[in-house]
Structure formats: structure tokens, C-alpha cells
Write a structure and sequence with these properties.
alpha+beta; two-stranded antiparallel sheet
């Protein structure tokens, strides 16, 4: 459950001259079951989004100027020198100015919501698109209407206010949706907040996987025990991702210690691994701890890691993979094709 502090919506619409303008709402949204349901669903959808980027208020690489207007307004609100409505209004005008630089930009509704979840304070910022829909009244009349398209949430960011206050030097207190084409999809949205990318979650997770593989290779664990370590680390990271928490190296070291391998933390510290003490988990990268998969030339192969060397044998010299025990559904297709 989340505890909502304040929330507000501003409309971003085109005026008579075709320019996008931000129509400001003069007061916060009233607390209601509908608002609780909306923000609860947005929190759930956002937390579950894979491949998020992480950043901070700073100077873009290769550009000597930082857009500090949003962070300054945020500070003014946080210190009590600016009300939430006034802060959100400044944010709306900053977004309006940024949108004016892009011909392709569309309007929508700018949502700012302050809430608490598991002892952390957050500010959620999203530009959401309306979606046409049809409703039926009690008199069986059909009416056209609009609703917020939550399923297509693309322009959204969440500021961890607790981390921002406690550690202003952090490079990951802002998370944002990267989109299918990477950060470029959200450039204007991040620029209006003055957010630049900091910690690269995918790279951190790749480093973790490499460090883990290097470490288990130095231990006396047998193949099954090594896979149990991989599985335990994956399960731990998956739990952290699902709850919105971060991966912590010390926690992973504890997972290894429970399985008779106590030196993982020292191993990563002494090695050439660019790992933060804590970082966001990336499940798609970590999945290789449990599965091998690949696609190319019209062939797709995927199998659980514990099958390597048993049901699945890789011949490095001849560049072949032998599968012992063809999956029943695949076997059935092959047999039917041969009979044709």
C-alpha cells in the first residue's frame, strides 16, 4: 500500500495557434478511492517496468549547462518555501517550455504525486496520454469519453526523495522509463527536470554476473552447488526488483556464505569490478544465471542452466549443441513433419 500525500493534474493542450500550453489546475486532487486506485496502479505498473534508467540532477555529458530550475523548485517545496500547487505549476511551465522545442511533441496530462511506500518518500512525475473510449449510461445511452492510458505509460520518472535528501551525491535517486528505443524517447521529458543518466543498471548487473561466475570458478563447489549459488542470487535479486528495492552486494555475499563460500564480498572488492555497493536490479540481464538462450539465423535455443553438460552438451571444437531428450511438443512436430 502507498500513502498519498498530495497529487495534482495539469492539462497540456494545443492552443488556437497550435502551440502546446499547460493549463494549470489551481488546487490538488481531492483524496478519494479513485485517486488511491489510480496512484496505486501507477506505482505497481511503474515498479514492474523492466529496463528503467537511473539518474540525478546534474550537468549533461558534453554540455556545460545544467537545467536547475526544476531541482530548485523541488528544493523550495521540500523546505516549505513553496506550496505543492505552486511547485507543480512551475513544473508545468517548465514542461511547456521544453515541449515548445519539439514539433513532434503531443499533449496529455501532467501528473505530479507525492507519496510514501515502505518508509521511502517519492515524487512521481508522468505525462500521460488520454485514450478515447465509449461508455453506456444507466439510460442505455452511448457516450464518448476519455480515460488515462495507464497501459501505455512511457513518459514517467520517480524521484526517491528520501535518497535525494540523505545522499545528494547519489547518481541514482531518479528512475525513469527508457522506452523501446532507449533514453531518446524521453529526452525532452528528462530535460525539463534537469535529469541526466547516472548509474547504468544493465552494466551493473552484467558486472555482477561476471563477478559471480569468476568467483564460483575459484571455489571448491561442485557443479550443482555452483548452480544453487546462481539460483539463490537470482531469487534474491528478483525479490528486490519486485519490491522496488535495490541489490546490495553485502546481501549477496551473505547468500554465498550460507552455502560455504564466504569470500565473495572481498573478492569483488579486490577484483577489477566496477560495482556499486547498491544498485537497481535488471531481471533480463540476471536471467542468464538461470537460463541460456540465443537466437540467430532462424534458430532459437533456450534451456535451464543446470542442463548444461547433462541434457545439453556443447562441443566447442565442432560448434554443435546436442540435446538429449527432445521436448515432447517439439518431438511431436518433428515426427508429423517427417510423415508428411
Amino acid at each position: 500500500m502507498i500513502k498519498i500525500d498530495q497529487a495534482i493534474l495539469h492539462a497540456v493542450q494545443r492552443d488556437g495557434e497550435g502551440q502546446l500550453r499547460c493549463k494549470l489546475r489551481p488546487q490538488p486532487l481531492e483524496q478519494s478511492d479513485a485517486l488511491d486506485e489510480l496512484l496505486g496502479e501507477l506505482h505497481r505498473l511503474y515498479t514492474a517496468k523492466a529496463g528503467k534508467g537511473y539518474g540525478y540532477f546534474g550537468v549533461p555529458e558534453g554540455d556545460g549547462e545544467a537545467n536547475e530550475a526544476f531541482s530548485e523548485a523541488l528544493t523550495q517545496w521540500h523546505t516549505g518555501n513553496l506550496g505543492f500547487v505552486e511547485f507543480s505549476g512551475q513544473a508545468g511551465k517548465l514542461l511547456e517550455a521544453e515541449l515548445g522545442k519539439y514539433d513532434f511533441a503531443q499533449g496529455g496530462y501532467l501528473l505530479l504525486a507525492s507519496y510514501n511506500h515502505i518508509a521511502c518518500d517519492y515524487l512521481f512525475v508522468a505525462l500521460m496520454s488520454p485514450k478515447p473510449s465509449v461508455s453506456v449510461s444507466q439510460e442505455m445511452e452511448v457516450h464518448g469519453s476519455e480515460h488515462l492510458d495507464l497501459s501505455n505509460l512511457q513518459l514517467a520518472a520517480r524521484i526517491d526523495l528520501s535518497e535525494w535528501r540523505a545522499d545528494p551525491s547519489s547518481k541514482k535517486y531518479i528512475s525513469f522509463i527508457k522506452g523501446r528505443a532507449g533514453r531518446k524517447v524521453a529526452d525532452f521529458f528528462l530535460d525539463f527536470m534537469g535529469c541526466v543518466e547516472g548509474v547504468n543498471a544493465k552494466n551493473q548487473n552484467k558486472e555482477l554476473v561476471q563477478a559471480l561466475e569468476d568467483y564460483v570458478a575459484t571455489t571448491d563447489l561442485d557443479a550443482d552447488e555452483r548452480q544453487q549459488c546462481r539460483d539463490a542470487v537470482f531469487d534474491y535479486c528478483k525479490t528486490q526488483i519486485s519490491s522496488g528495492g535495490e541489490v546490495q552486494l553485502q546481501d549477496i555475499a551473505d547468500e554465498f556464505a550460507d552455502r560455504g563460500a564466504e569470500e565473495f564480498y572481498q573478492f569483488t572488492s579486490a577484483g577489477e569490478y566496477d560495482l556499486e555497493e547498491t544498485f537497481p536490479g535488471d531481471q533480463s540481464t540476471l536471467r542468464q544465471l538461470k537460463k541460456f538462450s540465443g537466437t540467430g539465423g532462424g534458430v532459437s535455443v533456450s534451456f535451464d542452466a543446470h542442463h548444461l553438460g547433462e541434457r545439453v552438451v556443447w562441443d566447442q571444437v565442432n560448434d554443435t549443441i546436442t540435446i538429449k531428450g527432445v521436448p515432447p511438443n517439439l518431438l511431436d512436430q518433428l515426427q508429423r513433419r517427417l510423415k508428411a
